[in-house]
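Why does this matter for the project? Reviewers at the last site visit asked to see concrete outputs rather than summary tables. In response, this paragraph embeds two records directly. Each consists of the residue sequence and, immediately after it, the corresponding structure tokens. Nothing has been edited or filtered.
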Amino acid sequence: MKTILAVKNPGRKGKSSTILELANLMQTFPGCEIIFSSKTTISLTIDFRLIIKIKDKIIAFESQGDPGTHLEARLENIVKQYSPDIIFCTCRTRGETVAAISNIAHSYTYDIIWTSTYEATHSHNIANRLKAEHLQDLVVKLGLI
């Protein structure tokens, strides 16, 4: 089944950093093919879009899940253009971004797994990396890839 894994939390809690760690980790899979990447240079923003292929599965990453960023339209564009098996995205804990993910899941028959980042008072990079490892382990053990 097609699945959206949504990392939700308030602003500045490591959502984009976590899925960036996950995207970097997933790219180490044998035979991983990059189909599209919005990151060609280092920038001041961490937000990105990445589409990869692993074992005949299309996996999309969309990190810009803030209110006012037209998340629903961006996710719909990803679905229509790439028909991903898995979408990793970020959103806030309530409101328009959560509704956007729910609407896309309903319209295009995706299951949703909601999760959040680890909130640490220190060692944010380690916590983000560990969460990314857990998300990768989850999709593997669920047989999604």
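We now turn to the second protein, recorded in exactly the same manner.
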Amino acid sequence: MNSALKWPKGPVFLLILSLLIFMVPSSLKGPVLLKISEEHSLSLINMLALIPMLVALIWIQKGLWKRRIYLFNRVTLYPGATTLMVFIMGLGLGMVLAHAFSGFRYWWAIGGAFFITILVAVILKSGKTNFKEKQ
């Protein structure tokens, strides 16, 4: 298998691809398929961006599940850092949700950056272990 498609690089690549598709300017996104509110809707391009994102999330969950013993050991060794990371990820998701209900346009970008940064750090750190995947 190509090394770019192995865990953890594969899901990180798919997340980046998905985010790049989401960042397409509104004028190029095409017709609205699902209207969420006055300012929020999902276009055809947004729906296409969901495909690599969902594949990446399933792949991440599978990879982290296989490494759960390693991750449990890291959590017990560094509870303060783990708590801070979980707090930052929760804050990021909260900011993404707050974006839908506030006038500040960039809550989603700030919150998404918080969440994705910590998620990628966890993925890359757990991918550096001497874990042997079952073939």
